[in-house]
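Why do we bother with a discrete structure alphabet at all? Because it lets us treat a fold like text: something you can write down, compare, and reason about line by line. To make this less abstract, here is a complete entry for N5-carboxyaminoimidazole ribonucleotide synthase. Read it the way you would read a sentence in a foreign language you are learning: slowly, and without expecting to understand everything at once.
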Amino acid sequence: QGTLGILGGGQLAQMLALAALPLGVKVVVLEPDPQAPARLCAEHLQAPYTDPAGLDRLAGCDVVTLEFENVPVEALAALEGRVPVRPGGALLARSKHRAREKEALQTAGAATAPFVSIEHEADLTGALSAVGGRGLLKTSELGYDGKGQARVNSDAELRAAWDALGRAPCVLEGLVPFEREVSLAVARNAAGELAFGPLIENTHRQGILRTSVFPAAAPAGTEARAREVARAVAEGWGLEGLLTLEFFQLPDGTLLVNEVAPRVHNSGHLTQDGGGISQFEAQVRAVLGLPLRDWAPLHPAAMVNIIGTADGREPDWAGIDALPGTRLHLYHKAPRPGRKLGHVNLVAPDLETLRARLDGLEALIP
Ligand code: ATP
Ligand code: MG
Ligand code: MG
């Protein structure tokens, strides 16, 4: 019971609020966008993240959490000492900057793709060969859904890509020949107790998550190893709250951490309809100090994102509705090409049925 403040008012805040309400917890979001998805199910403070009156209101909540990395660290700093902020500013500062994040992951003992931090022109020299000759150049800050990234296969392409990204601080990563992508979330409360989400398998299209499936079709032992990495990062970074790790799995089974998000994650949306507690409830519980336990769907489950199309084509809504095991989640956002507008969760009694239904569902969502 109590009031939860959230920095950010997007769809993740919307779904956090929907999970908090039945626990007796009200939500207040600080979010400048007047059309923010969370406005409809939470008290919406429509102001910049650093607005003093907005921050005063959040400081009056029982605890503050976040749903978005790109809030200024200063907003958290202004709250710390007045209200518990979970995760705190130090963790946010790491995870919102790719180069710092990768260094901090390695310090915690997590393996990553080879990378070189690019801040000055001189950093370009020898960088591509240092990461294996083929790579992805990514801006260190503000990138999501594959935005602010370029594939590079030669030194000339690397230079051109860095120019095209405005010579912003970047990370050059080696191209990882992964077998699959998986993700796993960990929650840790202020007492240091841990709980884990399920191992989920993800497929991306044009840098944007398209589908997530539980259970992941990964070799035996993968989940246990992913949990160990998650534990090392959560403990090494002093996490309070929930953190999701995205992994590449190599053909030999090795897990490399691609990136982390200090919050619930798109790949975990399928936990909303699997019959267990959802990732959203897990984050609410972790930050408020409510009892924590591992969370996972009780049955095979999948998710397909609904993403705005260039030609405005819409999903076959009636078809989705008619497919057994589906549930629709919309974010009340104006459609734009490449924008995440909602998702469909899907459950089935067994994996074979899930796969068949997922093929059917994907065909209905352009
Ligand atoms: P989001 O935050 O929405 O997950 P992002 O913009 O931060 O996306 P990444 O997660 O870094 O982007 O990359 C998006 C996708 O691009 C990855 O999930 C993966 O499919 C592919 N990708 C990224 N980095 C690499 C790499 N080093 N090697 C191979 N594929 C990669
Ligand atoms: Mg990212
Ligand atoms: Mg990612």
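What the structure line is telling us, in plain words: The pocket of magnesium ion (ligand 2) is lined by residues 144, 259 (CB under 6 Å). The CA atoms of residues 225 and 255 lie 8 Å apart.
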